[in-house]
Task: inverse folding
């Protein structure tokens, strides 16, 4: 099914509902929830997802898992999506958190084909088999490290959200500690307790998340590196490759080219 509203088919008694939607660049789906869990797959463009727990960036040909009832907001950058909405008692992921998942060649083709599955599909026929295979592939899909957790502490969360909008690799924990009127030791302990990460690791993750939309839109690697405060493009590229297993230029080429498996 293409470009239809979920609420027109959400009541149908099937394990999953599949909907394909095309979004103009810059579309913002403001904070909302779904009764069902959602797998959101972007075949083109890039998605930025925010929840109370943190921020995710979803490159093309990857997907984000959103548990049932999770408040989330999504900004679309020229995205054509496939969404799979799954009944809460049939979810294939064990976590209660959002996750960015790697899409295998098989899952890619299944998600493309899902647009042809009617809402009231034959559970014992081909469409039912496709639905079950999609759920199985979702169960085994690996997680990608494209997440910056958000602290619960209100002051610290405010600083983190501001930083996510304009991250800089040279930001220091000493400066953050001073702004919060805390000692460096107290701040370091608080930050790890609240996010599960050291400040340095979280800062790097924030820079990585900010780099992906820039690279996808065609910004030169050198300019992205300098904007984020890296000493050189090589330093930025080294971080990027360690995190995602590919160079920034390779990512940019893949993001701007038709996908093929």
Result:
């Amino acid at each position: 099914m293409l470009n239809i509203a979920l609420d027109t088919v959400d009541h149908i008694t099937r394990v999953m509902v599949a909907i394909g939607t095309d979004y103009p660049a810059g579309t913002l789906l403001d904070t909302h929830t779904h009764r069902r869990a959602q797998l959101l797959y972007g075949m083109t463009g890039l998605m930025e997802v925010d929840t109370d727990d943190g921020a995710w960036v979803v490159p093309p040909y990857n997907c984000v898992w959103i548990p049932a009832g999770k408040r989330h907001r999504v900004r679309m950058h020229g995205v054509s999506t496939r969404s799979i909405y799954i009944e809460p008692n049939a979810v294939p992921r064990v976590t209660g958190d959002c996750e960015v998942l790697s899409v295998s060649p098989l899952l890619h083709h299944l998600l493309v084909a899902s647009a042809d599955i009617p809402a009231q599909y034959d559970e014992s026929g081909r469409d039912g088999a496709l639905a079950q295979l999609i759920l199985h592939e979702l169960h085994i899909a690996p997680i990608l490290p494209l997440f910056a957790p958000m602290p619960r502490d209100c002051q610290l969360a405010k600083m983190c959200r501001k930083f996510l909008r304009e991250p800089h690799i040279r930001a220091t924990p000493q400066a953050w500690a001073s702004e919060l009127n805390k000692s460096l030791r107290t701040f370091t302990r608080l930050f790890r307790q609240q996010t599960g990460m050291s400040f340095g690791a979280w800062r790097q993750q924030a820079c990585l998340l900010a780099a992906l939309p820039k690279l996808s839109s065609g910004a030169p690697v050198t300019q992205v590196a300098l904007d984020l405060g890296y000493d050189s493009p090589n330093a930025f590229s080294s971080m990027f490759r360690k995190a995602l297993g590919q160079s920034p230029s390779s990512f940019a080429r893949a993001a701007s080219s038709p996908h093929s498996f």
